[in-house]
Design goal:
With 428 residues, the protein is an all-alpha fold. The chain is built from 19 helices and no strands.
């Protein structure tokens, strides 16, 4: 066994620790949908305000992304992961004693948002870029798929605990997992391959460090990246498509899918199981997407991902209205396959355009747009339900927007991306 461990490159252990960390952070935010009804029933809080708290969290962790990317360059990977997991654990513990709506907004909106930000925004491309010279697309695909893995394993469990016991016991389960993850990070995480006495996976000889911004102010680094990025048309196309990506995934499905199913008489555990079932196909689809992004035109991958997602979202209201389990399963499969499959190609295009050194920060800004869209859908979905007593229009509109995203990504010119990299935008 010891010989086998020695033959496994330590980069894969770093990827595994990061994978597990993202699972924990991901289940915290993706579980928000199963807590809406219990919180509404116990405290009598307005659903749209509960959704607002979750929307703030989605937006805050997104807008923090570029600053987290800059802090990674200054503070280092291990310290940032420890601080972020500790923040997340603090928020989870405070959830157990909250009893006022304003406390929910602060705990889930601010503390949880900041705690989850590093894990759910820029840590995947950072680890892939710094620990892998080869198989970067695959590494990003695996790490991105980890949110689906947590959803797959834990959402039905949390829903069953809530249905049979209490939502506080479900929160306690998440708290235990977060504490275990904090210890694993403390004991085994490394900042760079150099700290582990190795080179990045696939690199045979050491190259000179190109990053000259280690001692710079992280806020300055983040905004310098934004100032350069906004001059490039492709940045706006990627940010616009990612806004719609966030709107149609974590903002809408992640927050309101379970409640939408419940409004048609689907039991909580069954609805959560459908969401979990999406995680199976999301895990497969996103990992496969990472593999494909190393081999095919990323623009066309995104075109088909957004198009299929839009078609599935338009199908969902019809499936629920008809009460067809078969159609719900079809929706689950098609939607699940490309829930987060858009991330590896988007990261790949960002790296092609802006270079390896700065693509992390600029992708952070692109992801901030993703979370702005998620926040709009999380709060907007709650408002639509409040006024129309149904989520149908929210899901239908999201499907239409996905078709718009397809048109955004196909405008990006592949040859122009190569030209931009040669012209030195990577020296932002």
């Amino acid at each position: 066994m010891g010989e086998v461990m020695k033959r496994i490159h330590y980069s894969w252990f770093i990827l595994s620790i990061t994978f597990l960390s993202i699972i924990v952070a991901g289940i915290v935010l993706s579980s928000s949908g199963v807590f809406i009804d219990p919180l509404e029933n116990e405290f009598g809080w307005d659903r749209s305000i509960i959704a607002l708290a979750f929307a703030i969290s989605l937006f805050l962790y997104g807008i923090s992304g570029p600053f987290m990317a800059a802090l990674l360059e200054v503070v280092g990977l291990k310290k940032m992961m420890l601080v972020s997991m500790s923040t997340l654990l603090t928020g989870i513990m405070l959830t157990l004693i909250m009893n006022q709506l304003w406390q929910l907004i602060i705990i889930w909106g601010v503390i949880m948002g900041l705690g989850a930000s590093l894990f759910l925004t820029v840590v995947s491309p950072y680890v892939a870029n710094h620990w892998f010279e080869k198989r970067r697309g695959l590494a990003v695909g695996i790490l991105t798929a980890s949110t689906a893995t947590g959803q797959l394993i834990l959402l039905p469990v949390l829903a069953a605990v809530i249905a049979n016991y209490s939502w506080r016991l479900a929160i306690g389960l998440i708290m235990i997992l977060s504490f275990i993850m904090l210890i694993i990070i403390l004991l085994f995480m490394k900042n760079t391959p150099k700290d582990a006495g190795i080179l990045p996976y696939g690199l045979e000889e050491e190259i000179q460090e190109r990053n000259k911004g280690e001692k710079e102010n992280p806020i300055v680094l983040a905004f310098n990246g934004l100032l350069e990025a906004v001059k490039v048309k492709e940045f706006w196309l990627l940010a616009g498509s990612f806004f719609i990506c966030g709107l149609s995934t974590s903002g809408l499905i992640g927050t309101h899918f379970v409640s939408y199913c419940i409004s048609f008489g689907v039991p909580l555990v069954t609805a959560a199981s459908f969401l979990s079932f999406m995680g199976i196909f999301n895990l497969v689809g996103t990992t496969l997407s990472g593999w494909l992004s190393d081999r095919f035109d990323n623009r066309w991958l995104l075109f088909w991902y957004y198009g299929l997602r839009g078609a599935s979202l338009v199908l969902l209201p019809y499936a629920l209205t008809e009460g067809s389990i078969t159609m719900l399963v079809i929706f689950t499969v098609f939607y699940g396959l490309d829930w987060i499959a858009t991330v590896p190609p988007t990261i790949s295009i960002s790296r092609q355009i802006f270079g390896t050194n700065k693509s992390g920060i600029i992708y952070g800004w692109i992801f901030a747009s993703h979370q702005a869209g998620a926040a709009v859908a999380a709060y907007g979905g709650g408002l639509i339900y409040k006024f129309f007593n149904t989520y149908t229009w929210a899901f239908f509109l999201a499907g239409i927007f996905c078709l718009l995203a397809s048109s955004f990504v196909i405008i990006i010119k592949k040859q122009h991306s190569s030209q931009l990299t040669k012209e030195g935008i990577m020296n932002i």
